[in-house]
Amino acid sequence: MDMLIGEYSNTMDDKGRIQFPAKLRSILNQDSLVITQGLDHCLMLFTTEEWKILAGKMVGKSSIFDNQKRLVMRRFIAPAQSVDFDKSGRLSIPQSLRDYASLNLGGECIIFGMDKYMELWDAAVFRKFDEDSAPSVQEAIESMRDILL
């Protein structure tokens, strides 16, 4: 599968659906995605194959007796839902996930392709996050110097 990259602006309709970008849809070549709570109050979208790999690693390395791992599994695995594309290429985002990510009916959204997964943000929430995290970007980039060079 090609890399899932790019930034795509969109609007959530009054039924909680988002038109999925045709470019990403052609790369995915799938009828559904797994959507879950992400970090920083966005949603993370995975192909079924990528989800199985990631969830398998998390569950395989976890113990029900480890409090921190249970917390991560409750936040990440438990809310995950498989969502089918409709005939028009839209995804209906479940209410619980819309609430988590502050996605509003009729509101502006942004989809980011992040190589093996995608993020779905409410545009205003992302702009605030981007503004608040701007001072840390240089430090974050520098922390990856061993990887990048």
Query: Strand percentage, roughly?
Result: 25-35%
Strand arrangement in the largest pleated sheet: 1-7-8-4-3-5
* Low-confidence runs: none
**Considering DSSP H and I runs of 4 or more, what fraction of the residues is helical?**
40-55%
Q: How many strands?
A: 8
Q: Which overall shape is indicated by the principal axes computed on the Cα atoms? A: globular
Global structural class: alpha+beta
CA gyration radius, whole angstroms: 16 Å
Q: Could you tell me how far the N terminus lies from the C terminus, measured between alpha carbons in angstroms?
A: 26 Å
Number of helices: 6
Assembly category: single chain
Question: What number is the mean pLDDT?
Answer: 92
* Strand/helix succession: EEHEEHHEEHEEHH
Quick description:
This protein has helices at residues 22-28, 48-60, 67-76, 95-100, 123-143, 145-148; strands at residues 4-11, 17-19, 32-37, 43-46, 81-84, 90-92, 108-115, 118-122. It is α+β, with helices and mostly antiparallel strands and 149 residues long. The model has no long low-confidence stretch (mean pLDDT 92).
